[in-house]
Amino acid sequence: MRHDVWWAPGLLLAASGALALPAAATAGGQAQPAATTAAPAGDEVGELRRELETLRQDYASRIAALEARLQAVEAVGAAAPAPAPEPAPSPAQPAAGASKIFNPDIAAIGNFVGAAGQSPGGGEPSLNMQEAELSFQAVVDPYARADFFVTLGPDEVALEEGYITFPTLPGGFLTKIGKMRDAFGKVNGQHPHTLGFIDRPLVSTNLTGGEDGLADAGISVARLIPNPWLFLEATGQVYQGNSALFQAPTRGDLAYVGHLRAYQDIGESTNIDLGGSIAYGHNGITADTTTRLLGADATLRWKPLRRSIYTHLLARGEVTWSRTEAADGPSAAVGGYGFLEYQFGRRWTAGVRYDNSERAQASGLRDEGGSFILTYKPSEFSLVRAQYRRTSFAGEDSPANELLFQFLFAIGAHGAHPF
After folding, report:
1. What is the per-residue pLDDT for 234?
2. Closest Cα partner for 186 from 165, 204, 207, 162?
3. H or E segment at 65?
């Protein structure tokens, strides 16, 4: 019943203020100019005062009636017996929402890979549960969130990534602390189930550490660079210096990574993503030898949302330059890949990839290959992919011709990855 009363005084005050405006306008320090044919001001003011007095009496009687009804209802409520308290939830049955508060989002992703054909280098096993990835992700508090990714492989259980993110630090800095994949290029930072192909390109195998890639314990700081033209983000990272590529001889021999990313929408359906990367650290060959990497990547995406939600085109290229010091002198190498993917149906995607890369410590040896990829995606939680791969390895007389196939399946709430 209290909701029936609160509006009455407010409405009365509003009416009083509105009716008092003419009188206030004429009672100021300066006289207002009179209209040429206006009626006498005294008659109008008197009429308005009489109407206001009538409204006051009317609302006073209504408020008195509402107060009487409210007192009667409160008297009845005081006389009624109090309701019995509800039983408290038992430990086995937590209150609603408690499971979301105390438990993170948990997901499991299975990655089964098979291979057929001949390869001089051995290649993948014929049938292999390559890995199962477990993810645990949750908001820690209003200022941070945590992400853990654990991989279970045929030979080991390892922490692929585990870090805490502070997105709201002073100065607009986004900071990550823990173990994470280095922000070098595009492919290095992607988990296997987010790639558009089954294997990693030759440049990853030859120059940036292969499947494990550049991943280490460290600190990452990123910041958006405001400008009126495009999205521009700069990232600086410091790592322990212990990864598939870098091996620090002493505690002070850290590894460093820098990345600059530019993104721009070209139109409603098209955008472009450009990136430049640099990495530096000791390679462990001797106490003083180092490895330096430079990288450049470009991605063009086209997805006509208005015409068809089941069509998209992605074109991506990545180039990496490597300079590796050794006991007999430095060695320079370069490698890269180009990838084109087209979605031609609701669940079907086709792609082609070209690889060309020298080897890090043997720049005179160059590997070259090409792949055709066909992907069928029944839903967001499963994927079936086939890839024909032909590779010419340096020093081998005949190329490798292989057919790879992959089954990906996921359960649970798995968060989105950077694209």
Report:
1. 97
2. 204
3. helix 41-79
